[in-house]
Write a structure and sequence with these properties.
335 residues; alpha/beta; Rossmann fold; two-stranded parallel ribbon; 16 strands; 19% strand
Length: 335
């Protein structure tokens, strides 16, 4: 579906944006536009892609609606990844995250409608589920904006369809725990573990890209797509890294304010609207006309109601063993 298409990625200079750009170029996209506010990262990315002729770089901020309108001219598909994400910084500057994650997201929606974009996929986070911090609350609102955007558009006038995906931290991404532990072990520093019972979902960059691309292909509008994943225990990660590198000291320091012991990708209430589809889970919007149809199965292939889970949390799914974690870490290239 990407061949010959013009695609824009907001926040496209991040780790996800770079990986997604590579994937889209491999699938013969006509043009990939990177929309971000950091000129240094744009220069670095331009160099990394050897000044690829199909890449375009737009300096701008999603807070700036007029600039977004210009950047979206003749665009077919948008992947919305731009966000403020650093939890402690957002707690100290909460309204700045509202300006970017909420108002900026509405700017994306409004201007995609004005430019008659075909598909818009928002990149969400597990922290939007029953949020404990401002970041999670703003990302929840972003999701709500996207799954509701289809409600008020004139389907005969607009072709635009809005969807969202939701997953946890990508293995090896900026600020994630495994590369931090690796660096501390290599420096013979004490590693700091928040809680020995902590679990997290394991998702690689390839897993994240598969989810995003499959959601773009399958989505009809108003869905949230979630990957089926295994999880890991933080102490097993420590043991795997000690085996792969060498042992060092560690201490348990306790959970930070706003941090969860386990990741939840679908809460108990959302499970009522959750379906299994093509190795993914899909939350439907009960307020959207498509999902009020009793024959929802007719609108999708390989659809089945999810009745086996009460919620989808990292403490309730299958865990990776230490040996499996060692393979995952080796394959990640982080060592």
């Amino acid at each position: 579906m990407f061949e010959g298409k013009t695609i824009l990625i907001t926040g496209g200079t991040g780790s996800l944006g770079r990986a997604l750009t590579k994937k889209l170029l491999e699938q013969n996209a006509k043009t990939v536009r990177i929309f971000s506010r950091n000129e240094n990262k744009q220069i670095e990315m331009e160099s990394k892609f050897n000044e690829e002729k199909r890449l375009r770089f737009f300096l701008g901020d999603i807070r700036d609606s007029e600039r977004l309108f210009t950047a979206l001219e003749d665009v077919d598909i948008v992947f919305h990844a731009a966000a403020l994400k650093h939890v402690p910084k957002i707690e100290y500057n909460p309204f700045e995250s509202i300006k970017t994650n909420v108002i900026g997201s509405q700017n994306v929606i409004d201007n995609c409608l004005k430019q008659n974009v075909q598909k818009v996929i928002a990149i969400g986070t597990d922290k939007a589920v029953s949020p404990l911090n401002t970041y999670g609350a703003t990302k929840l609102l972003m999701e709500k904006l996207f799954v509701s955007a289809n409600n008020y558009l004139n389907r005969e006038k607009y072709r635009t369809r809005f969807h969202a995906v939701r997953y946890g931290n990508v293995l090896g991404s900026s600020g994630s725990v495994i590369p931090k532990f690796i660096q501390q072990i290599k420096n013979n520093e004490k590693i700091r573990i928040t809680d020995s019972a902590m679990t997290r979902f394991n998702i690689t960059m390839d897993d994240a890209l598969d989810l995003i691309i499959n959601a773009a292909k399958i989505g009809k509008g108003s869905e949230i797509f979630i990957p089926k994943l295994k999880a890991y225990n933080i102490m097993d990660v420590k043991s795997a890294l000690f085996d792969l590198l060498h042992e060092t000291e560690y201490e348990v320091v306790g959970i930070r304010p706003g941090e969860k012991l386990h990741e939840t990708l679908i809460n108990e209430d959302e499970m009522r609207y959750t379906w299994k589809i093509n190795d993914m889970l899909m939350i439907t919007n009960p307020h959207y006309e498509l999902f009020n149809d009793k024959n929802i199965e007719a609108n999708y292939e390989n659809l089945e109601k999810e009745n086996n889970l009460t919620s989808y949390s990292s403490d309730k799914v299958e865990k990776l063993t230490i040996e499996e974690l060692k393979i995952v870490i080796k394959n990640s290239g982080l060592l």
